[in-house]
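Weekly sync notes, structure subgroup
Attendees: PM, AL, DS (notes)

Item 1: joint prediction request from the bench team. They want all two components modeled as one assembly rather than separately. Inputs as received:
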Amino acid sequence: MRRIAIILVLGLAFAGSARAVQPDEILPDAKLEQRARGISGGLRCLVCQNQSIDESDAPLARDLRILVRERLTAGDSDAGVRDFVVARYGDFVLLRPPFNIRTLLLWAAPFLILLTGLGFIWRRGRRMTTSVGVVAPLSEDENRRVDRLMQDDRG
Amino acid sequence: MIVEIGHFALALALGVAVVQSLVPLWGVSRQDRALASVGSMAAVTCFLLVALSFGALVVSYVRSDFSVENVASNSHSTQPLIYKLTSVWGNHEGSMLLWVLILTLFGAMVALSRRSLPARLRAGTLAAQGLVTVAFLAFTLLTSNPFRRLVPAPAEGQDLNPILQDLGLAIHPPLLYVGYVGFSITYAFAVAALIDGRIDAVWARAVRPWTLLAWVFLTLGIAMGSYWAYYELGWGGWWFWDPVENASLMPWLAGTALIHSTVVMEKRDSLKVWTILLAILTFSLSLLGTFIVRSGVLTSVHSFASDPQRGLFILGILIFFVGGSLALFAWRAPLLRQGGLFAPVSREGALVVNNVFIATSCATVFIGTLYPLVLEMVTGDKISVGPPFFNATFVPVLVPLLLVLPLGQSLAWKRGDLLGAAQRNAAAFGFAVIVALATVAVTQGGPVIAPLGIGLGVFLVTGAIMDLGERIVARASGWPAILSRARGLPRSAWGTAFAHAGVGLSVIGIAAAAWSTEAIGELKPGERLTSGRYTIVLESVTPRNGPNFRAEVARFQLFSGNRELAPVEAAKRVYVARAMPTTEAGIRTDWLSQAYIGLGDTQPNGAVAVRLYDKPLILLIWLGAIVMAFGGALSLTDRRFRLAAPRRATPSPVAAQPAE
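Output from the run, pasted for the record:
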């Protein structure tokens, strides 16, 4: 179901050829280019949704890729480039949501849920240990009662 | 004429489904056997009617009957026959009909299964299943009727979307649907048990094969979809954390947890409340997935069915079935009695831990997928939750679970010995460490975490093999004894080992992606491009036409080091009817690795833009999934769960085969 869907739209939105990063965009400095790829992988293509600009064929994505490379060539740090893009397009452009008050729940939830679950089974485990009583050996008195019962049974 | 018969059969099926959803329950409450057994008859009839209807649509596609609106907008007379067939579900209306077909197929299978089910349970299950069928038949008939006629009929159709004209995609939706929809039976069983108020090991044993069946297909469906994305989208990615992908991953995770929790329930008559909840949630997540895809509510590349009427209808269905079953759960679950006990350190305890971690990972995907939507509704802020988020949360939750998996699998039932389990796995662990260290020595670059991932995968695979060895070899002397023990080992034990080893294989494949390399270049004939171990030389670019497309095919010589492999072709196609281009990646499989060539635009100077990837061990990702599914299928043939023949000592040929 999901795939069908992907395609229907992908097909309409961009015509499918593998154009993402084009040869003419690539910076001569390999290190700088690598940083550019890293940054573009985390920036969302705004017109195509759910693709990074690094993967997208949309013209806007190309513009952004070139922008990222221009800023890098101008000497910006990775964070500087990201801030520059966010200042223009807002947090929406970041594929990794920033950690702030609005996303606190988002980031914390997985770990809270895990802790809750583990806490739950820890409590359950303790309850079970005590109720199964597997660890406590029989007392002298109980042993004698067992013997007596066994003999009763045979008799 | 046949189109009208199909339409009529569909409407009739709705009527029969109403009977199926009401009469059995009435019969149960009146203690009337005849009335209660109406459910089985209705379920089978309903399936036959929907099958007739589906058949009618297939016939109209094969005949290219463009007087049917659905055919006209999604088919073309020049399409090869296979794609005329797959066009049936390559669109919203047809895929809903397939959804309903599978739904009723499962209903009929429950009705006909020869397993001895308690009559009340069978009646309740069929009724619940009938209710789901009613909802989706009504949805199909009222909002997504595939049989609508077009007057005047156009002379030619608009063609199936070219990206869908692909064999991988042809079989992806049916696999996925069998998975999604298969969980409806588990759901129906849960609802029936809640109504009946009796949930025990019999219930768990009755449900387990259905869960396994759905899970096997969902596993294959997801893997197929992932592989398709890999070769068709042209940049070599295989998982994008797209909402629609997440929509299929969530029921898979919940289903995986369910498979494990029903084991505890079956063995120890424990974890009842949780298992029932999980059964409800798994199908609820399938419904949620359907809603996400069909309504286009999430900003996604998939929003093709963004028809508000349809979205609202499915939202209604979602609220009714999720809300209704959860209300029933809240009302009846407290009546369930706690079952048998087990020590925290035991196989049961390990399965509980498994459930906590898998449920958390599922919740993580759920929150990550829906959070942007909720935030935007509440505050109006727009954020994106993309792959970096899931990699930072989902992976850390799942990795600890995989690390202790081999330990859990070798713990004894009821009360286990952690130290003993650790000792039994020491060899596997040591081997994994050695492999991880060797990986560090052999490879250059890549993140630190990648060799650890390889080690983890190796630990899972060897752990699974050693566990089998422990059960077979350690307690037998001599080959005949080993063979007889191997044969005597329950199929479910083999299934477990295969499934867990499959997880390990996938983990290795995913970790190895860290060493994949990419090169982008412009090539003229005779020029070469190198990426990782592979070098390509462009031989020629030639036009070549297909039945309904024009193509430009680039042919490359491929070298791995100095060794020449068979040449590879990558192509760009333009489908004539929609004037839409697609790319066909050139892929050469080199043992478990692949060389991957994506073709870009022709540059003004006549050179072709080409991307070459070296994808080491990438096939393991999907191979692992196939091994997992095979494990599930093996488990399904276990004597305890056999759907058809409850007691037969020889392996039955009827038993489910792994569908590849």
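Discussion: Chain A has six helices and no strands.
Action: AL to compare against the crosslinking data before next sync.
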